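Example (one chain per record):
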Amino acid sequence: MLLNLALSTFMVSLTVSIHLGGLLGLLWVLRDRAHRVRAHENRIAQVGVLVFVVLGLLGIHTIEIWLYGLTFWAIGAIPDFETALYFSTVTFTTIGYGDVVLDKQWRMFGAIEAANGLILFGWSTAFLFSVTTRLRMLEHDWLERPGPSRGTHEKD
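Predicted structure:
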């Protein structure tokens, strides 16, 4: 049990550090390119920023999932790497199909991966929401602008 908790603590610390580094890297790139994309100026550029952020977040999560998969395989909790990676993916994303089950010795490690994944996905969601809000993509500014059926043909 002590080895299980020590390994879990190490993996949580590692993945949180990777996540922080990844988010800081994305933020650095976004700030470096911020002068090119201003609110309400270029919707295509804003969509490009969002796609970049989503793919970056997916890349960060992929690294974290692979690290857990490698760990499950390296400690012998799951005999082949493909199954270990599959198990890590469904555990980290908290899908948990239940078709691959760990031995009693490593169940807590798997449960902690699920909790870790849930927290990291929440952190990513908050980051994505923050970026989206800064781009003002969630505002319905098109409702405020007169269009063909609004403003120009209204009767008094």
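Caption: The chain has a mean pLDDT of 88.
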